[in-house]
Amino acid sequence: MSIAAAVLMIAGCSSPKTDAEKFADDLLGRMTLREKLGQMSQFRPRSGVVTGPEGFSYDLETMIKAGEVGSILSLREQEYFEIYQRLAVDSSRLGIPILFAHDIIHGCKVIFPINLGSSCTWDVESVKQSARVAAVEASAMGLAWTFSPMCDISADPRWGRVSEGSGEDQYLAAKLSVAMVEGYQGDDLSDSTTILACVKHFAAYGAPEAGRDYNTVDMSERMFRDRYLPVYQAAIDAGAATVMSSFNDFDGIPASGNKWLLKTVLRDELGFDGFVVSDYDAVHEMVNHGVAADGADAARLALEAYLDMEMTSGDYINHGEQLVQDGVIPEKLIDELCRNILIVKYELGLFEDPFRYGGAERFARETYKPESIALARKIARESMVLLKNEGSVLPLKEGGKVAMIGPFISDARAMNGTWDGFSEAKRTVTIEQGMRARFPEGTLTFTRGCDAYSHIDGGVEAAVRAARAADVAVLTLGLPGNHSGETSSMTSVELPQAQKELLAAVKATGKPVVVLLVTGRPMALESVDELMDALLVVWHPGTAGGDALADLLSGDYSPSGHLTMSFPRCDGQIPIRYNYKSTGRPLTKEMDYTQSHKAKKNYQTCYLFTPNSPLYPFGYGLSYTQFSFTDLQVLDPEVAMGEDVRVKVRVTNVGEVPGTTVAQLYIRDKVASTTRPVRELKGFERVSLEPGASAEVLFTITAADMAFCREDMKFAQEPGEFGLWVGESCEAELEGKFIVKE
Ligand code: NOJ
Question: What is the CATH number of the domain that holds 506?
Answer without folding.
Answer: 3.40.50.1700
